[in-house]
Design goal:
The complex is a heterodimer of chains A (182) and B (215). Chain A is an alpha/beta fold and 182 residues long. Chain A has four helices and six strands, in the order αββββαβαβα. In chain A, strands 4-3-2-5-6 form a five-stranded mixed β-sheet, covered by helices on one side. The longest helix of chain A has 20 residues. In chain A, 27% of the residues are buried. Chain B has 215 residues and is α/β, with parallel strands linked by helices. In chain B, strand 4, helix 7 and strand 5 form a beta-alpha-beta unit. The longest helix of chain B is centred in the first third of the chain and has 17 residues. Chain B is elongated. The chains are: A alpha/beta (182), B alpha/beta (215). The interface between A and B is large, with 57 and 62 residues. Strand 1 of chain A pairs antiparallel with strand 5 of chain B.
């Protein structure tokens, strides 16, 4: 197809003086390079551009009884309050009679992840059942905080977690510690 | 040992076929790459390690941004047309066939029902002007005043009627949006007994995502 003069590479010293044909073989290497570069670019942008979807399941809302709660042993739960200023307050058990905490920690590997990993390891040992994490965002928490903490659940592989409404006493606690503005 | 000198094969490789193939692929990718539509409301989604991509169809998306403004968009023109018909019945606003056709091409919108006609009449550049669309009104009731509730409901019934499938719903919130605004959307979904939804995030790159996977 494109090999117009097959014997141009030999360089034989023929007796005949041939008039050199113009533009026999074009070096396509650079063109192929460029084409592949562009292919790579378009391939990556088509798939990477798509946002990710993080699945969330929330407990069924019982409209008739807002205080409807499932009774669980308080040594199985860890409650995470998403306070303002990118801080987390966590405690175990009930807020009035906490078994541990409340303690203020940061997001990320050094903060809440350590707590969760420890609780995830010790709760099944002691009670034989999984840890239940209750996430309660305050009004000062941002969407980023919510996604971060749900992400953390995925990272530490916590199977049981739920998203709940913050209680007034918890709000009060956050206000006292300057972690909630109003 | 002296060997007879083998004539070296020419190092010049015929690149023509390779070039052909690569440009064919290139053309394919260029054409399939969807041009990014101008978004009615730009939001900066938070990052997560989730690697599940959002589905391409049968998806309703509520965008929350710019201080709690709600926008709504549905994938699929047929669903949009059907949804608009339901809404025009609910709110007693009639749309012409042309308006329906134009609405079917709108990815996302955020205006109250009584301003929808004006929005449909605009062209795409005008619609994308930031701050032009005030967001879809919503409140905590299930009445007609909570337009967001009815849009989602209409989209879900349209999807169920057309494809006999559940519509997936996702919330695309700005990272700096306060939780009460997100909560408002979650409550609207829960009022329809929709307890499964997804949050749209972008991929978190770098060290943290990798170290996280080891745990």
């Amino acid at each position: 197809m494109a090999e117009l003069n097959q014997d141009s590479g030999g360089g034989k010293k023929g007796g005949k003086v041939r008039s050199k044909k113009q533009g026999g073989r074009v070096d396509l290497t650079a063109m192929v390079d460029l084409a592949f570069l562009l292919i790579t670019f378009f391939m990556l942008t088509t798939s990477l551009n798509k946002p990710n979807a993080m699945d969330v399941t929330v407990p069924d809302k019982n409209k008739d009884d807002l205080e409807d709660r499932l009774e669980v042993a308080d040594d199985r739960t860890t409650t995470i309050l998403l306070a303002g200023d990118n801080k987390i307050v966590w405690y175990s058990g009930m807020f009035d009679t906490p078994l541990e905490g409340p303690e203020t920690v940061d997001y990320g590997a050094e903060g809440i992840r350590k707590v969760l990993l420890r609780r995830l390891a010790e709760v099944p040992q002691r009670t034989g059942e999984d840890l239940i994490v209750v996430i309660r965002p305050s009004d000062d928490a941002t969407h980023r905080n919510l996604v971060d903490i749900l992400d953390e659940m995925k990272i530490v592989n916590a199977q049981k977690f739920s998203l709940g409404n913050i209680l007034e006493i918890e709000n009060e606690f956050l206000r006292q510690h300057n972690l909630l503005s109003n | 040992m002296a060997r007879a000198k083998v004539k070296r094969a020419s190092t010049v490789i015929d690149m023509t076929a390779m070039c052909d193939v690569s440009f064919l692929l290139l053309t394919f990718f260029v054409l399939t790459a969807t041009a990014r539509q101008p978004e009615a409301l730009e939001v900066d989604t938070p990052a997560s390690v989730t690697q599940v991509k959002i589905p391409d169809d049968k998806l309703g998306m509520v965008t929350v941004g710019d201080g709690g403004k709600l926008f709504f968009g549905v994938k699929g023109p047929q669903i949009r047309t059907r949804m608009l018909e339901t809404m025009s019945e609910n709110y007693n606003i009639q749309f012409t066939e042309e308006e329906k056709a134009r609405f079917a091409l709108m990815d996302e919108f955020g205006v109250p029902m009584h301003n929808l006609k004006q929005l449909i009449a605009m062209d795409m550049e005008q619609r994308a002007k930031p701050g032009l669309q005030p967001g879809i009104p919503s409140d905590t009731t299930n009445n007609l005043s909570n337009e967001m509730y009815h849009w989602i409901h209409a989209a879900r019934t349209a999807t169920a009627a057309l494809y006999n499938e559940q519509m997936r719903i996702s919330i695309k919130g700005d990272a700096n949006e306060k939780y009460p605004d997100i909560k408002k959307v979650i409550d609207i979904l829960q009022d329809q007994n929709l307890n499964r939804f997804s949050l749209i995030t972008k991929l978190k790159g770098g060290v943290e995502a990798i170290s996280g996977d080891e745990e």
